[in-house]
Amino acid sequence: MTSSLFSHAPDPEPQRGAASVADIEESCVVPRETDEAFRGFHEYLHLWWPAEFSTYGEGMHPEFESGSLTETSLDEETALWATVREIRPDELLAMDWFLGHSPTVSTSVELRFEPQENHTRVTVQHSGFGRIPDGLEVRDRLAGQWRNVLQRYARFMGAR
């Protein structure tokens, strides 16, 4: 029993949750209708994805297959990049993105394809960095990579 009628409960311990790390958001505009823009990313990734942003480097082959995004080396080794959470052709591709290609550490990547007259705005949003160790460092490194990936994709799709 407390000695004072107006006593307060002790202050709760501060909660230790995910650190706040900003999302990455990059976009580009390609001179294609949304169906072509989507196919260019989803079906022809192996033709334009930069080898420097891969596990195996030159000669690698990234592809979407059976609900996953994988990379295969010249020696037929495979690395898992992501699993697809949701796909709405010509509109959305949402994935759990594995850092270090381990299915135990993931972030979230969403690609949106939005019509703009005779063009399509493609936006990538990469989030969830607060859930991982060194999230801010990883976010800063990947921000530049996503910018370069979208530039390469835009050129492949005919943007100037």
UniProtKB/TrEMBL annotation:
Pfam families: AHSA1. It comes from the Bacteria. Residues 1-22 are annotated as: Disordered. Residues 63-146 form the Activator of Hsp90 ATPase homologue 1/2-like C-terminal domain. InterPro entries: ASHA1/2-like_C (IPR013538), START-like_dom_sf (IPR023393). Belongs to the AHA1 family. This is SRPBCC domain-containing protein. It comes from Arthrobacter pullicola.
